[in-house]
Amino acid sequence: MSTLPDKIDQIIKERKLLFQQNKTEEVNPYVAQSEALLIDTVISLALGKNILLKGPTGSGKTKLSESLASHFGQPVHSVNCSVDLDAEAMLGFKTIIEVDGKSRIDFVEGPVIKAMKNGHLLYIDEINMAKPETLPILNGVLDYRRQITNPFTGEVVKAKATFSVIAAVNEGYAGTAPLNEALKNRFVTFDIPYISGDVLLSVLKQESILKDEKLIQLFVSLSSDLTALVESGRLPEEASSIRALVDACDLAVYIPPLRAVERAIAGKLDDDREKAAVMNAAETWFA
């Protein structure tokens, strides 16, 4: 990564010192098609902004969030959104515990409360999968107030200064709903495209157990063809998922590449014509 501004670099160093007692898991760094994406997301988090990552499934949004957390040395608490997401899943729930032989009600903190109290990062995956009426509870968490009144305990929780939110969306998928303007206005937004060419080659070398560089290059070429088919509307976006491509590379260590593509990429599609299109593209490179 290019040299960051001195003030931002100092913030990163201070956070790493602050959280060094929390052993954050080391992850391979996210490799972006444009280095500006990495620089801008790091600066945004260092300044205490919430960031929204927009991109197709498998484009690396979760990987980028993990890389950012590792960069700052901060633990991450995750919320996985669905139509069933409710306040308890985000904030926590009451339960009965035994203390000295007596029963009492205790509150088990959820990921939002934990992240706020500890100044950790909060990752909200597929935020546009949640019901629109569920998310307003986070408005005060995401804006300048950085606080919430816990409806289950009445406690006013004020986030520590290092707390920030990373959210991810897959736009246009079944079950998703557009984010309202009030919610979007609380984020700095980044588009996460699929990577290609030498950048993809580097990622496959880093993430896959496949070490045959010539074979990896063929998978990069296949990815280019699949992306073109996606862009022309002949395949759904998941057909050019980087995650699925890594799976195919891993399988190709032990089984023929065509079978690896069939299992890891084509097999995830429901339409027989789409499966055939993937395999036809694969046969161009692996026949």
From TrEMBL:
Transmembrane segments: none annotated. It comes from Domibacillus epiphyticus. Residues 47-193 form the AAA+ ATPase domain. InterPro entries: AAA+_ATPase, ATPase_dyneun-rel_AAA, CbbQ/NirQ/NorQ/GpvN, ClpA/B, P-loop_NTPase. One of its GO terms (molecular function) is ATP hydrolysis activity. This is AAA+ ATPase domain-containing protein. Belongs to the CbbQ/NirQ/NorQ/GpvN family. It comes from the Bacteria.
